[in-house]
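Predict the structure of Trypsin-like peptidase domain-containing protein.
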Amino acid sequence: MKRTSRITATSRRVALCAVVVLAATSASVAAADEAAGPFGVTAVVGATAESARVGALFAAGKAGSLSGNHFCTASVVHSRQRDLIVSAAHCIDGEGDATGLVFVPGYRDGQAPYGVWKVGKQYLPDGWAHGQDEDSDIAFAAVDELGGKRVEDVTGSNRFAAGVATGATAVTVTGYPNSREVPVSCTNKPVAHSATQQRIDCPEFTGGTSGSPWVNGDHEVVGVLGGHEQGGATPDVSYSVVLGREAAELYKDATGG
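Done. Here is the predicted structure for Trypsin-like peptidase domain-containing protein.
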């Protein structure tokens, strides 16, 4: 089931334990933010410099009433133009409404602490554009300037890193479940699902978390939640395309490199 939709039956089965899982201690949250563990624990993310780089996507028509209207996750990655976000292709392509999309970095409880940024030009890989291949479920988009500033100058960024071996290090996944108005985060070590897909075991990554960045300890995005089953059919197992040649070429196109 696509992660832009609410997961129903499976979510209900884990709902009773969700409160316990998400009530991790502040020490656990800090450790997860540093990609050092504890592994496989999902917790609410505090407002930090790192979490400011991750935001929620909304239909532009909802920009005046953010609370409860986000549907996917995206994050700021470094580019020469300092205006680039990365997400899943199924979040960028055809979502939103006739007015387009907006990106709200650091979104929390209906508030936009770093502004509401209009999503402009989109970059989709050929494999997605010509058949929605799950092995091509990644996309970039440029966001327009806001108040004369570019998004990376306001929030900072992570580096985009294609070609990193699956499971080389633990990663921290941060995203926005549709059912919550704050981001959650989990650290674990990815494993190979196939030659083109990687998976990670983290509880309660439900609808809305598609597009969540997988960030290693070097502040590199080495995965983006999506791909197989558009991110996963259960809330406890998530997928990402293995970021290889196609992802590298797409990033080059998006940055004009």
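The longest helix spans residues 9-22.
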